[in-house]
Amino acid sequence: MTMNVIGKPVARVDGRDKVTGRALYAAEFNQSNQAYAVIVNATVGLGRITGIDQAAVAKMPGVLSVLSHLNAPKLAYRPHKGSIDPKTGERLHVLQDEAVRFHGQPVALIVAETLDSAERAAAALRITYEAQRPIIDIADPDARAIVPESGRDHTRGDAEAAFANAPVNLKASYDIARENHNPMEPHATVAVWKGDKLTLWSKSQYVVNEQAEIAAIFGIPLENVQVICPFIGGAFGTSLRTWSHVTLAAMAARVTQRPVKLALTRKQMFFTTGHRPRTLQHVAIGATQDGKLTSLIHEGTGETSRYEQFSEALVASSSYLVSCPNVTTRYRLAALDTGTPVFMRGPGEASGVFALESALDELSYKLNIDPIELRRRNEPKLDEGVNKPFSSRSLIRCYDVGAERFQWLNRMPQPRSMLDGRLRIGIGVASATYPAYQAQSSARVRLLASGIAEVEVAASDMGPGTYTSMTQVAAETLGLPIDKVRFSLGRSDFPPAPSHGGSWTMASVGSAIRAACISVLEEAKKRPSTDRPLEATATTQRDAGVAGRFSMHAFGAVFAEVAIDPDVGTIRVRRALGVYGAGRIINPLLATSQCTGGMIGGIGMALMERTVLDRRDGRPVNAHMADYLMPVNLDTPKIEVQFVDEVDPHVNPLGVKGLGEIALVGMAPAIANAVFHATGKRIRRLPILLEDML
Ligand code: MOS
Q: Where is the signal peptide (predicted)?
C-alpha cells in the first residue's frame, strides 16, 4: 500500500491557531453577563461539617450566591456508568450532605460578579467541622484491603513451588509515589443555561461522556446538554472523567440564572481531579543459572477512595511481557480517605513495568548476564497469558536497534565501573509495553461542491496532534491534499467517539474516519454529478474474530544514561533513547513529539514527581508547581525516539497500535537501572531522591 499523506511528517494543522491565540481553551469562552464561581474546599481530611456562616459572606460586595449542602439544589444523580467511571461504588455527590470524605472536597461554592469578589468571599467563609483522622497511607495497617471487583488475577503453573525450587531467585518490593497530572491548562468550565438546555465549554477528554454524566446528575434528557471542547492544554488523563467542578459550574449557573465560569486553581488540581495512585508491589522471580525464568509472582496494591473502586492494569503486563511457565499475578486495592484516582499516562503499566523491569535487571546482575541478553532469553513466542499469538511483537528488534544506536556495547558491564571526572555514569535499559486497543467510534464526512471535505467526530485533542493525524487519514482515504480537509472535533453533538485516552484514538477514530471516507467515495461514484454535498457516517469497532485470535500490544526498548554527583547526590539523565514497535506511524513528526513528551514524563516519575500528603489530615503539602517537581528543559537531555518498521495486518485497518501511553512506560525502570549501574544502589522507591544516593 503506497501512502501519499499518511506516514508524512505533516506540521500541525492547528499550529498557527495555537501560537497566535486563536485556539480557544475552555476558560476563554467568555459570555456576556458572566459570573464567576469559586469552590471552597474542606480543610479537614475526614468528618462532617457542623456549621457554615453563609450569611456573613452573602452580604459581601458582588456576591450573588453562597451554596453549600444547606441550600444547594438536590440533584438527581441518576446512575450513569460511563466507560471511564469505576464500575463499583458511587461518584461524589457534591454539596448534597455534610460528610467530608477527603481533604479538599468541595464543601461550598461562591458565585459573584467578579473573580476577585468570589475569591474574597471564599477566603472569608467560616466553616466548622467535626474531624477524624483520615487513613491516607496505603501502608497503614488500618487501610482496608479490597479484592477489586474488576478481578485481574492470573495464574498459570505453580509459581510458588517453582520459586522454592529455582536455582536462583530474588524477591523485591517497590513503592511508587502518588502523582498528579499537572497539565499546563487547569480544569475549567463555562456553563450557560437557556431554559432547560445547558451548554458547557469544558475541558474534557471525553465530551460525549461529560454530556451523559451531567444529564444524569441533573436528571435532564441527554439532548439538553451540549459539551464543547475544541482545544486542551494537556491532560494526561485528568480530563477523562467529569469531576465535581463541572457539576458545580452548572449548578451555579442554574441558581443565579447567569452564565458562570469556574476554573480550578493549581492547588485545587490536587484535590478532586484524580491522581496516579501510589502503589506497593512485590515481585518474586525464580530462574535457572542461564537466566531462563521458571517462576514469576507479581503482586500489587493501588490506592482507591472509600466511595469508588478505581482499578488499572497494574500487574497485567507480567502475564505476557516475558516467557515463564509458572506465573501468578495479584492485584488489590487499598481504600483510603482520599479522592478517587484516575488514569495517568501509561496507567497501570508504567507502575507495574517499573517493578518487573527493575527485578529483571537485578536478576541479570545476579546471574552476570547482560540485561538485554536476559530479555532475549526470555522472549516468548506467543502471549502465554492467553495462549494466543501476538498480532505482531517487535521487542527484540527494538532492543537490537536501540543497542546499536545507543552504543550499548561500549558500556562497561560492572556496576560503578564508569566515571566521567568525578561523576558516576550509569547506563540502563528496560522494556515498555501497552495494549493496542480499539473502541467503537463514529465519524461523518461531507464532500462539498467546492471540493472541500468536512470531517466531524466528537473526539478530543489533548496535544498529540489529533487534528493533524485525522486530517491525514481523511486526506489519504479521499485522495485529497491536506488543505482540502476540514477536520472538527470536541462537540458532543458530533458523531460519538470514545474517550481520548488509552492510546486508542487513532485506532478507533481513525478507523471510523477511514470507513466514512470510503463510504462517501462510493456514494460519489454512484452520483458523479451532483451539486448537493455528499455525506456519509460510519461506525467502526474492532473485528471480533481478530480480537479472539490475537494478543495485541505495542512494545518498546528504552535506554537511559545518568550522571550522578557522588558528593551531593544529584542525578542527571544525560541521554535517553526510546525505540518502539507500534505498528504504522501516521505522522513521524507528531509521533516523535508524543514519545519525547512521554519519556520526559518518565523522567518525572523516576526522579521528581510525588504528591506528599500530611499524615494528620491528608492535605497535599506540595500542591503547587514550586514543590511538585517536574522536569524542565535543564532536566531533559538529549532524547531520541525511533520507530521500527512494523506491519501489523491484524490490529485494525490502519495498522496502528497507539503511542501515547507506551511512551511513558519503561523510562522510569531504565533510569533506575542506570542508577544501579552507576552506583551499585538498587532503589526500589520512586521518585529516586538525592538522599538515596548519599
Ligand atoms: Mo490517557 S491516561 O488514557 O489520558
A: none
Q: Which helix (H) or strand (E) holds 524?
A: helix 511-526
Does 159 fall in a domain? no
Residues 444 and 395 in one domain: no
Question: Does 147 map to a domain?
Answer: no
Question: Which protein residue's CA is at the shortest distance from atom 4 of ligand 1?
Answer: 237
Q: Is the pLDDT of residue 338 over 80?
A: yes
One domain, residues 126 and 253: yes
CA-nearest residue for atom 3, ligand 1, is 501
639/672 same-domain check: yes
| CATH code at position 261 | 3.30.365.10
- Report which of 502, 522, 504, 524 is spatially closest to residue 512, judged by C-alpha positions: 504
In testing the pocket of ligand 1, which one of 84, 180, 229, 240 has its CB within 8 Å of the most ligand atoms? 240
| 403-451: pLDDT as tens digits | 999 999 999 999 999 999 999 999 999 999 999 999 999 999 999 989 9
Q: What b-and-e string marks burial along 116-154, b requiring 16 or more CB atoms within 10 Å of the CB? A: ebbebbbeebebebebeebbbbbeeeebeeeebeeebeb
Nearest one of 165, 197, 654, 214 to 438, comparing CA atoms: 654
Q: Ligand 1: distance of its center to the CA of 233 in Å?
A: 14
Distance 335 CA to ligand 1 centre (A): 22
Ligand 1 mutation target, pool 187, 204, 273, 345, most atoms within 8 A of CB: 345
Q: How far apart are the CA of 478 and the centre of ligand 1, in A?
A: 30
Please tell me if the CB atom of residue 597 comes closer than 6 angstroms to any atom of ligand 1.
Answer: no
Query: What is the domain range of residue 367?
Result: 279-437+548-693
Residue 661 annotated among the catalytic residues of the structure: yes
* Interval 54-91: pLDDT, tens: 999 999 999 999 999 999 999 999 998 777 899 999 99
- To 5 degrees, how large is the angle CA 29–CA 33–CA 36? 70
Q: Is there a single domain that holds both residue 288 and residue 213?
A: no
Q: Establish whether residue 498 lines the binding site of ligand 1, counting it when its CB lies within 6 angstroms of any ligand atom.
A: no
Contact by Cβ (8 Å): 674, 666: no
* Judgement on whether residues 456 and 341 belong to the same structural domain of the protein: no
Q: Is 32 exposed, middle or buried (0-12, 13-18, 19+ CB in 10 A)?
A: exposed
CA–CA dist 189, 204 (Å, integer)? 9
Question: 687 preceded by cis ω (within 30°)?
Answer: yes
Q: Is the CB of 463 under 6 A from ligand 1?
A: no
343 lines ligand 1 (CB under 6 A): yes
**CA separation for the pair 182, 211 (Å, rounded):** 24
> Three-state secondary structure along 126-179?
CEEEEECCCCCCCCCCCCEEECCCCCCCEEECCHHHHHHHCCEEEEEEEEECCE
CA distance 34 to 32: 5
609 CA to middle of ligand 1, Å?
17
Q: Which of 548, 569, 559, 567 is nearest to 638 (CA)?
A: 559
ipTM of model: 0.97
The residue whose C-alpha atom lies closest to atom 1 belonging to ligand 1 is 501
C-alpha count within 13 angstroms, C-beta hemisphere, residue 97: 7
